[in-house]
Amino acid sequence: MNPVIKIEGLGKTFNLRHTHSLKETVVWLFKGRKEDLSKKFRALDGVDLEVREGETVALLGFNGSGKSTLLKLISGVILPDGGTVRTRGRVAGLIEVGAGFHPDLSGRENVYLNAAILGMSEAEIDEKFDEIVAFSEIEQFIDTEVKFYSSGMFLRLAFAVAVHTQPDIFLVDEILAVGDEPFQRKCLERIRKLSDEGRTLVVVSHDLDMVARICTRGVVLEHGKVAFDGPAPDAVDWLRSR
Ligand SMILES: Nc1ncnc2c1ncn2[C@@H]1O[C@H](COP(=O)(O)OP(=O)(O)OP(=O)(O)O)[C@@H](O)[C@H]1O
């Protein structure tokens, strides 16, 4: 089967310091702007990864290992400074709660905005609108501006929109954690349904037991590199033994 995500030599460096004292800047100017003033951090360093259609992949690793950065690069919200990411089909997911939502618009308007960003036509959204709102269970607040939403309400609406776009590749970051337990269970059931339908999943989580249940493959990142790639239970054991 052809890969739906193909990542080659992927690298991402962040600037860790953006502000400098006047003294630092003057010294730097007098020294002829030789070295780079800002400190750099290599969050991803030469990652190669292929994900095939229908695979369920957990991205695992300790804090700061580069999981969220990799997910953001796959979704296209940030760009790499080296290497390539290619995806096939509609990509949707939950990476940052509230991303793609406008605070001054109501929940209803944001459903249209967010679903359009994720590639749905107006007619498709009209058709799915009631289902999306029913899934989110926030009918009562659908005409309230989302700046008044709690993080859980944001998550509910964002998750509901994302799953109803029928994505080919569904990306989920840790953020499910802000939902209450019944809603988390509902999301997990929905994620499992997407996987049963043969859609591709990439999930970032520290809940190792949960990912071992929903994912078949585990990719462990360490200092921005792939350190382990294999069956999810083995990846979990490998990480726990570190
Ligand atoms: N926008 C940014 N600017 C500067 N540094 C960043 C930025 N985004 C990420 N980083 C750094 O890159 C590294 C990897 O971050 P990332 O969020 O990908 O890690 P993670 O594996 O998802 O961690 P966690 O488990 O804590 O969520 C971290 O050291 C982080 O500080």
TrEMBL record:
Ranges of residues in domain ABC transporter: 22-239
GO MF term set: ATP binding
Ubl conjugation keyword on record: no
A Pfam family hit: ABC_tran
Keyword annotations from UniProtKB, A to Z: ATP-binding, Nucleotide-binding, Transport
Keyword Transferase: no
InterPro entries: AAA+_ATPase, ABC_transporter-like_ATP-bd, ABC_transpr_TagH-like, Bact_Polysacc_Export_ATP-bd, P-loop_NTPase
Organism superkingdom: Bacteria
Family (UniProt): Belongs to the ABC transporter superfamily.
Name by which UniProt lists this protein: ABC transporter ATP-binding protein
Lineage of the species this protein comes from: Bacteria, Bacillati, Actinomycetota, Actinomycetes, Micrococcales
